[in-house]
Write a sequence for this structure.
């Protein structure tokens, strides 16, 4: 029996895809990466995943796990050799249990993030992970990449929301680590090692996740600011004034909102005067466990004081849900407006919050020195130190001119990030996109520690090879 | 030059202790474990730690890292062979930096926890880790054991408070992972692997830790309850009603408080009637970011409703700081009152909160069946699912009779913990005490994964051998 037949006999012939059926699984959704595979296999349960991995391990065939295929770094696309088997977790989409007294739920890797959110809400609980792809990404992919999103300031990244995991090892064994415990000091933290390892150490098949009480009320405001240092000072004040109720603090330059309002004229800022009147804008969100009235009073007290002190230049507090959505819509439209404006170069970086203002000023200057006329479209989750430091070409310049300089711009920005003790991948992961760049910024000792772990857990090197790490020279 | 001379030349002769000078470092503070060592070495900085480890590695000499020596599982005591070198981090006690805009500080491993707390407070920030030994334990020890304490419900364990680490590897190399970033998805999570690994994978020499705003007001209350299920229901209600302001939820049986008030008659419950009138008591703490008035009103609203609904039988809210301290003092006196009462057997366990009531009922019954007359002294951090499920001998029985049955009682309780999907070490770690028991409850695959990591990072097996894991048969 050859491998294909063995796979068919394991998961059923209809769940082993080849030819045109396999095609959607062999490229990422943006079409940046294309690969080939022996087959795409869709197991029904953890035991089948383990059997498929054992079959592949026996023949030294690489395995590429895949969730919703919504990643941004090519982490779920096989290489072009055609040697690999893609394992899609999409059929493993059951909610195994909800435990409201323990504030946990246990779901399979193929669950769509939105299903996890809705399952929590139906149990009168919040699962806080929230991001643009939530309607199609899977929780397994979120775990594999330690996804971030809009609620990290209060609730942390996917790692922070995870209590337990079930994992199929590269040897096709099943580790049942589905613990619903908030305290467990019985050995090495395998859970956090698998989270964020992009399928290179094993396949996450299920997880036990934390739930939170649903907030009773939310408030949203758009604030006009003079500068990035003013935004940093406001963040500090908001953290003190709102405590854990502060659930969102997004920063946007005037250039971002100018793009949005120009390309989508139906969208307007609820503030007097033109967008360019102020240099920067912040979107704040408060989640309250008490009441609408309390949330509103508190919001007005802290923001009112910031206005009086001159830290904030102007402010608009959403009066209702529709206005709140409109404010978030401004923020969420920035990437779309950028695409309307033309090709651009994206950087998903993080910087210690105390150095963000210097980073922006210094990097803006360096860019102008080396690439005169390029436009900064800078926004991001300031509360997490996470900037989407994006670069648009000079006005009137043809797009190919910018793209020709893409690698040089990447390097200039990432060198600057490194100089400011930042990270070149805040929330998107490494995958194929940043694998080689990692070797430029990580210390040799850190890369060596990672290689040692990879070789210890996957000595055959069959788990998602070529992602996160360069292939090691096996000893 | 022999090893001792080489060590002296590295750190200075006065910092290489032998004979009686070394004695305090060769036993744990409770005197449960005693060991021997070639010497106790006290390096001044990270580079010296690295040099000492390199010297030891060259001669295949085991290394035992030690902080404040306040652990409860023998994790910092060398074995009796006398082959090891103890590395005390106590001289490495500098605060390297405080960054209020980034809400982080960077400290060396030998910093006393209380110093870290005070440094934060002087910067108008909270470092929330808090536990009984805070006046003498070091942050390095807290990191090595992933210490818990009284604020876990809101702020998490030591791991959750850590952003970056500096580590000396078993090869004597220095990994500088002192990042102050809340988002960084550039590879494997080495940080969380070192945290909680009890010095068996490397020596943590410094850490970048998270800071929080100081609460503006705190409220404390003692509540009388009928049962453990009532306590679990109250916890759920408090989490919803107080959100992230709920910073403490401690559970105590009436037997605990009976012991305290009998041995320390100056301590009284601020409730009418005898202690035994109610079966259980809860100590709640609310930390507010707004005002005393707001905290008080909110506390009274939620607790008042619980009283009205019959979920709470009686309640006393502290009127001032002195009364609040008196309530916490009742809770903190339980272990002392237990010691006054006589020898007892302690279990530091965690259980999913939804199963805690069943666990207590079932295990209490089992104990009575097998060890008639033993007394349960059950208390703990209910909000974290963490119970100190302690067992006192029958009234009037001589202590040796209890201690003779210690291992049988351990096994009965830990078997029950395992049956309820719990952990046999919630916050104290494994060390020597629970190393062999781990093999009874962990799956072979999990033990094997841990051994693979140990062998990958410490192939010589010189880092704190015999702790956490049994010695592996090296391949």
């Amino acid at each position: 029996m050859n491998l294909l037949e063995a796979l068919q006999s394991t998961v059923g012939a209809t769940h082993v895809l080849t030819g045109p059926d396999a095609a959607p699984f062999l490229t990422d959704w943006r079409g940046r990466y294309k690969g080939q595979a022996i087959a795409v296999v869709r197991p029904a349960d953890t035991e089948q995943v383990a059997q498929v991995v054992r079959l592949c391990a026996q023949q030294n065939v690489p395995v590429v796990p895949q969730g919703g295929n919504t990643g941004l770094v090519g982490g779920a696309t096989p290489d072009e050799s055609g040697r690999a088997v893609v394992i899609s977790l999409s059929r493993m989409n059951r909610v195994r249990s909800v435990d409201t007294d323990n504030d946990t739920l246990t779901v399979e890797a193929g669950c769509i993030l939105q299903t996890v959110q809705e399952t929590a809400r139906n149990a009168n609980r919040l699962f806080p992970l929230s991001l643009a792809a939530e309607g199609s990404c899977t929780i397994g992919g979120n775990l594999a990449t330690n996804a971030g999103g809009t609620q990290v300031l209060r609730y942390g990244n996917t790692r922070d929301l995870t209590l337990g995991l079930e994992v199929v090892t590269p040897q096709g064994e099943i580790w049942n680590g589905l613990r619903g415990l908030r305290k467990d000091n019985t050995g090495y933290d395998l859970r956090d090692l698998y989270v964020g390892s992009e399928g290179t150490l094993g396949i996450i098949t299920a997880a036990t996740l934390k739930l939170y009480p649903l907030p009773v009320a939310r408030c949203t405001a758009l604030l006009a600011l003079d500068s990035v240092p003013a935004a940093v000072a406001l963040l500090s004040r908001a953290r003190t004034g709102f405590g854990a109720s502060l659930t969102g603090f997004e920063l946007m330059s005037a250039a971002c909102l100018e793009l949005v309002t120009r390309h989508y004229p139906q969208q307007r800022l609820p503030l007097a005067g033109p967008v360019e009147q102020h240099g920067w804008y912040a979107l704040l969100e408060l989640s309250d466990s008490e009441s609408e009235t309390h949330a509103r009073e508190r919001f007005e007290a802290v923001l009112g004081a910031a206005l009086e002190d001159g830290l904030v230049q102007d402010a608009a507090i959403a009066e209702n849900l529709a206005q709140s959505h409109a404010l978030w819509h401004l923020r969420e439209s920035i990437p779309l407006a950028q695409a309307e404006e033309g090709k651009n170069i994206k950087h998903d970086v993080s910087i210690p919050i105390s150095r963000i203002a210097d980073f922006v000023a210094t990097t803006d200057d360096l860019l102008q020195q080396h690439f005169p006329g390029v436009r900064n479209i800078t926004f991001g989750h300031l509360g997490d130190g996470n900037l989407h430091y994006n670069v648009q070409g000079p006005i009137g310049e043809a797009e190919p001119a910018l793209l020709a300089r893409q690698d040089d711009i990447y390097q200039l920005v990432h060198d600057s990030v490194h100089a400011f003790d930042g990270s070149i991948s805040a929330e998107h992961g490494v995958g194929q996109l940043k694998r080689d760049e990692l070797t430029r910024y990580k210390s040799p000792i850190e890369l060596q520690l990672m290689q040692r772990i990879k070789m210890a857990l996957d000595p055959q090197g069959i788990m998602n090879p070529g992602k996160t790490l360069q292939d090691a020279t096996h000893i």
Observations:
- Chain A touches chain B through 90 residues (CB under 8 Å).
- Residues 292-308 of chain A form the longest helix (17 residues).
